[in-house]
Structure formats: structure tokens, C-alpha cells
Amino acid sequence: MRRIAAVLACLTLLCAVLLQPATAAAEPAYYSLRLPDGLSVATLLNEGYDISHAHSSRPVLVATPDEVRGLRDRGVVLGKIGAVYQPVLRDAAADGTTYYGGYHTAVGHEQHNAEVAAAHPELVRLYDIGDSWKKAKGQGGHDIQALCISKLVAGGCALDSTGKKPKFVLHAQIHARELVTGELAYRWIDLLTSSYGKDPELTALLDTRELWVVPMANPDGVDVVASSPSRPVMQRKNVNDTAGACPASTAGVDLNRNSGFQWDADQGGPCDETYPGARAESEPETLAIQGLLDKIFRDTKGDVSSPALPGTTGVFLTLHSFGNDILAPYGYTNTPAPDQAKLVALGKKMGDFTEYPVSTGDGGVGYFAPGATDDWLYGTRGVPSYTFEVGPDSGSCAGFFPAYACLDSTFWPKNKDAFVYAAQAAAAPYGELPTRR
Ligand SMILES: [Zn+2]
To answer: CA within 20 to 30 Å of 24's CA: 297, 330, 377, 393, which one?
Structure first.
């Protein structure tokens, strides 16, 4: 017995050693941070530090050991939260559709979109809404794809605003490294297409709503992330590298700072994670999503300080990770949006399902997001628009690269009912909100 135990212990140790990265000592990790007087999160972001879910009251830094030493020398108190990478026993699928234990590659998403459209012609319209940066340059790349899922009726799911059914749009993986977001969209597509005629509530939803999904808004970025299947690359932005040479995985334009609403050149240089691009709407991915939303939603809002018309329909969610937050407009300023009370009220209803608190503006941490997708849609069209920073922000399912099993244990159960609720609320988002299911 003792010998068997020793062998097992050895095997366990061997596994642990094999699963350890060869360069563990230089690996980035997540840290909490407490700043000395005179140093702000905004300053560190401008210096190029990678601080995620900075809207939260608990900003988290991703840093290498060298960066940690430099910050500690400046008086920053850092607490290690955890490793960036989780061990995976199964990395890439042989057919190239998944990586890192089950997450879908760009090809995996595209194959899935084509399959559900072919299998459910009475429920699904699949659209090519524009090109990725690489495709626009003739360097390979991808189409940006959108699905409209609904019990199709004449004139329904068209690329215009004449459809009778209110629309809910779920938008994911605009930040490529936020792996969980694309998987939530993937599961939402499967839930909707597999439930028609079986689940009464979801059948009613498909009968009365158009459920639009952009499962992967930044496919070139996803290619970079998935290029290292067992240790995904930290690529957040698209892959437009024309603004200058940058260290690995730091080139590109932040597509969530590139919209045509309140775009701000002062969000960082070409190698910073929040580089907004050379000008507003410079990127083809931005034009693709704005083009879709512009077509399918009526404009019910005037200038930046005008409220939306009370009869506005539709709800838009853009998924990000990681945190535990629902962000409501505006995100570029602490000046309240004209519909702020109603936007927050709907946000809180969704938060009843996710247990994420709702914040607006800088969330109290001095960090704004000018040029973001959600501000653009609300600010220019009046449609209630939200960012979900899907959590958790600590524990074994935290981080950009949680184990794939966290989808089943945490992310999907926490978010799917909020998606259903958002779709239900799309009929009258500024009116009487649906009662909780
Ligand atoms: Zn993000």
C-alpha cells in the first residue's frame, strides 16, 4: 500500500511538474493594488499598465515580476490574487474548432453559426456585417458575423428597422482575450435554437422578439489569442499594427474606444491597451457593428443631453470580462445620462439575476471609457445599452482565462436568465419593466 501511495504521489507530482509552465517565474499574474498619494489608476493606464475591470471598486492589475518590482519601488502595495493560466489537460481540438480546454476558436464560432443557420432555417438568419481588419487589408482575416434568431415572419430579421418585433442584441468578444464572453454568446445561440416549441417561455420569446447575436466582434484578435492553445495570448485589441511597432500582443486598436460617440484621442498610444485608433470609427470592426445597429434600430434620441423617446424599444448588451459589474451609460463622463434613472433601474433588474451591482460614469475610480460601443448606441440612438463585466473577480473562475469548466459551474448559470430578462424588457425598456420570472 505504502509503495502504491508513493507511486501515486510521484505521478501527482509529475503531473504538477508537467502542468507547470517552463517560464513560470516570468509569468504574469493578477494583483490587487493600493496606490500611494499622487498616483492614480488613470496614470498607470497611461503608462501602459494593464489594469482590468477598472470600473470596479477593486481594480486588478496584470503584471510580470519585473513590473511588480517597479511598482513596489514607487510605493504601490500589490497583493497577488492568482495565476493567469489554469492547467489544461486538453488544449486544442484536432479540427481546430476549440482550444484551452474547450473555448471556441474563430473557425469554431463560424462553423457553429453556419450549422445552426442550416439546421434551423425557420429560426435563424446569418449575416456578414463587415470585415475584420485583416480581411479589409486582404491578409486573410474574417467576416464579422451576426445572427438574428426569431420565429421568422415576413419582413422579420431584416437589416432595417421596419420589423415589428422588439430587438435584443447580445454582443461578445470585442476584447479577444475575454474568452468567456464568446462562449456565453455561443450558449445563448444554442439555448434559443434548441428551445423553440419545447420551452414555453423561450418559445414565446422567439415568437415576439428578434434575438440578435454577434458572438465574436474581434475575430482577428481571437486568432491571436488561440494561437497558443494551452496558454492563450493576452490580445485585447484588433490587430491593426500600422500605428507603430509594439511588443508582442500589445499592437492594435481598442475597438471599445473607437466608436463615433465621444471618441477621445487621449486614451493611450498605439501599444496601450486602450489605444483608441487614429480617429473615431477608423476600424472596420467598428463600422461593422455600428452599421448593424444603425440599420436595425430606429433613432429615438436627440443630442447628448436629450432623453430617448419613451416608446423606444430594444436592449443591447456587450459582454466583457472580468469583474462583477453592470455598467450603464454614460461611461465617458460622470455627468448623468438624461435617462440615467431608467437605465439604472433596468440594469438592477438584470443584476437581480447576475448579482452584479450597477454603476455609471467612472464607478468612482477615475477611469472612463470614451468611445465605447454601449455609449455609442445609447448616446446616438437612445437604445438602452449595457456592459456586463462577467465575474467573478476573485477565486478559481476569475481572470481572462478561467478553466473551461467555469462556464458550466458559474458563468452560464449566472448570466442566462439575465439575457432572457433583457430580451423580455426590450418591448418597453423605459416603461413598466417585466416582473421577475
Ligand atoms: Zn473588455
So the answer is: 393
